[in-house]
Prior knowledge:
The structure is a single chain. The chain is α+β, with helices and mostly antiparallel strands. β5 (229-231) and β6 (234-239) form a beta hairpin. α5 (137-146) crosses α6 (148-156) and α17 packs across α22 (652-661). The protein is elongated and about 125 Å long.
Amino acid sequence: MNGMDVSPIVRKNHVASNEVIQLKSEFYQAFVHYRKERQRLKQQEEEAHQKLSKLIDEDEHLRITYIYLKRMINKTKLDPRKIPKFEFLPNELKNYFFDLLITRKEVKKYEVQIEHLFNQEIENGNKMMINLVKQNQTIQNALMLTNHKMHQKINSSSNAKTMDKVWKVLGRSYAKTAPLSTFTSLSFIDTKEEKRRIELNQSILLKLFYCVLELDEVLVQSSFMVDFEITNDGILVESFLEDIDKNSSFIGNQSRKFLLSSKSLLEIEPGKVLSTKDLIVELGITNNELTLIRKLVRYGYLKHTAHDKDPSIEDLIKFLVQCDGGNSDCLKEIIWILEAIKQDLESFMDNHMVISEREQLLLRIESRIKKAFELTGRNIDLHSTSLVSENYYVPADPHQFALPDRVQKDIETYKEILAIFDHRLLFQLSIRYKLFRSNNSILFNDIKPELVKFANAFEEQALLKDFSNSIFTESPLGRVLNQLKREYYKVISETLSGEDVTLDLKLIDEIARVLKENGVKRRCYDTFLVQQVTKEKYIVNHIKSSYLGNYFRHIKKESQKQLYQKLKNRLTRVGEDIATFSPSYGFNPNIIPIKGDYELVDKKSLLPNQINIGACNIYWSQQENRFIFYNEKHKRFIPIYLGSLASYHLSEDFKLVTYLGQSAFLSGMTIEYDGIRMEKPFVQIGKIEFGSLTLQRRKYIIHSCLLERIGPNLKGFQQMMEVMERYQIPKVSFVRIFLIQHEKLSIIYGEKGLHKPLFLDITEPVFFNRILKHIQKQIKKYKEVAVVFEEALPNPYHQEYMTEISIDV
């Protein structure tokens, strides 16, 4: 591939289709036969009604007989004694009605059998699901590591609540390739052997690190940088350490501000680094010295110099050994605990270890972590936190990394228009147009208040998914980009009427030509996440901007420098360097081992290779259509965030830098869910294709009013089938649910499990039972919802394992 100088990543689920196919039964064939028999009976009854109506009009002598027969036609018994003149009916007619009654009895008997079989299949299906989840070692391992409580419940009980979890876990770990996680393995082209990488959850490690730093034995040997601002109200300081006891998802990305009033704190110049001993002298502390130092650390007046980077478990052990000096029993015990945990983590990597042994290791790690926190005197809740993070690497078939030439060409062609879907480019052009018209450079800290206002407005506008008539399309180039996107949307919006759309190469080439003429060039990589559907057809699950962070996190150390050079060549011009940043905030995927030429920090820099963003200048390069950054030494650099945590979760300074200097999430390539109107009970969205690529699967959307009265019995199953057939919905699909607000689908951010796709084979009673309960639970909660059935491309039953290829171009 011409534009592909980075090898693909293959990620794969480890629940085989032949495991799940065991859930398929012969029920549906029996049900189809039952429906045919019911239909035959219905036709016979209609014919009988028509025959009797005709005879009532033609035969006055036996009219009363025919009227009685017509009344009794829908009853299961025909009692000749209650029908006047029945004995005068021709034998042929008598036999006709007796045959009808026999057929009805047979169908009724068959219905009882089918209903019993239906209930039996639900019961058997639930048992088989539980057994499958219990027997599949990948699922067991992943559940144990990510949600130990759920793992224990699933393996110890099978109540309704547990079954709901079992079904969702199975569906997601079988039919959809998960994000880079414990449920999915990764394969690189140079992966030669199966291996695991186990890390202690970084949030636990960070909390322990910050707790250890407050111990008397550590404080007396520490040094700190003084950090505050003078305001009219007093001494302004900022810190996140007051909140580390709380059960928050991330640590350190959000701070609280405090006002201090002691005048003695003004005696030390901000930025000065002092030891604890010197601080006590400078501040004139005479009593409870360490207690006051500890408070000043928590409030942020003092920043511990050991905060320079996210520590690994090895870093923390090394730090404590340096602090101990052989004199502290407390530190010795914490060091011993960390060494023991380190050994346990290494034991975890044994691929031959059975789940019960791994579980014992996990429980031992949990016990040791609790003990370590007890020694620091802090009570930290670990119940809702997974203790360890795992990455699982397996060799892959070489052919899995290769794409057909046609597919490669179509990816490269489509990539050329991705700039119109990058909203951050509109943000950058708007900032340039509004704040940098003079082409002068501006200090970041000086312009920050204006940047914050623009960022807030940008985030509000982004939720609307339309930047037309906003400040972000006032610049000439911003208007061009917005117009190109509108022209593209006009074409794909045909799918809103249910029509499939094939993007014309002329349209793509024309958009690419206009972008090139206006000097718009994407410098980042673009990740295409694709799955094979047929030999020459691939589905594109997602496209996102990439700075190769996933590669740096996962590939071998010896390959990282070479890959970093490729990234640098792609992003920079002669004389420019890269300043990387990737604060973990306790989120393991954000731990990126490689550092750039410099490290960007959002605080006063302490090390020679660190650049404090607040002290940097920014100016707009008209020639390159991008912002240029340089520090006080006039060193030009490009700030690059390598982490996978969304910018929304970063500190304010880091978030602003990503908005100014990087591409981000791309949106608008397909019809987005919250852009779909639900003005009718049923809406169909067509497919979008470009050459060999399917960019959007067909969607069949049903209003909850069509499903809310369906029961969990055989009658309900038949009603569901009638709905599926009426709207020609595929029997195998992925199901998502959305709230309906103002006749539009609405995304509820942070609502776990609502929008995630669930695999559904509606022909199986157990799947029908589970999806119906899931749907009705959401109807009860939200009143009005849309149920989206998305065609299963590729069909999980047709793949041995669900596999996705990640391609950076």
